[in-house]
Amino acid sequence: MSDVRAKLSSGTLLYRYVDGEIEILLVHPAGNYNRRAPWGIPKGAPNPEETLEATARRETWEETGLEIICPLVDMGHVDYTRSKKRVHAFAAQAPDGAAPHCASWEVDKVEFIEITRARRIIHPDQAALLDRLLRFLSPDATDEVAAKTPA
Fold it and tell me: Into how many domains does the chain fold?
């Protein structure tokens, strides 16, 4: 039986390589009440009749100012353990020279973050998306990051 989720969102796992390391684009939610909130991928709810991929592209542009025109790879979804939220993710390499910025009141920080550090600060329920991205990029990369990340 399929689990019906009350909230649905879609976003991008935008990555780039810097000095041989993978960096992931993450956003931090704005507001004093979110100051200790975990970071996450740029994401949001689909508009009526909007595909999940179109939502991911739109939300990335709305939150970071980056327009993603290259093909996206479906990374599946994760279900949050403490809420009825399902997050779909699509991966793409960041455009050359990408300069993300806070383009929405919804976020107060937008940064490319090295993947080992990203694993420590991302929403715990989104961490599985990083694993999927690493398996997609390089089957050996998953073991290296897991070994560097403290439990």
Answer: 1
Q: Taking CA 74 as the corner, what is the angle to CA 143 and CA 51, rounded to the nearest 5 degrees? A: 155
Domain containing residue 34: CATH number: 3.90.79.10
> What's the one-letter identity of residue 73?
V
Q: Provide the CA 66 distance to its chain's centre, in angstroms.
A: 13
User: Mean per-residue pLDDT for 32-41?
Assistant: 85
Is residue 130 in some structural domain?
yes
Domain membership of residue 2 (yes or no) is no
For residue 1, being part of any structural domain is answered with: no
Range of the domain at 73: 7-148
Identify the residue whose tokens are 């779909």.
88
The model's pTM = 0.85
The values of phi and psi at residue 93, to 5°, are: -80, 135
In this prediction, what percent of the chain has a pLDDT beyond 70? 87
- Tell me the pLDDT tens digit for each residue of 104-137: 998 899 999 999 999 999 999 999 999 999 999 9
Relative to beta strand 7-18, strand 85-93 is parallel
Residue given tokens 């998953």 in the structure block: 142
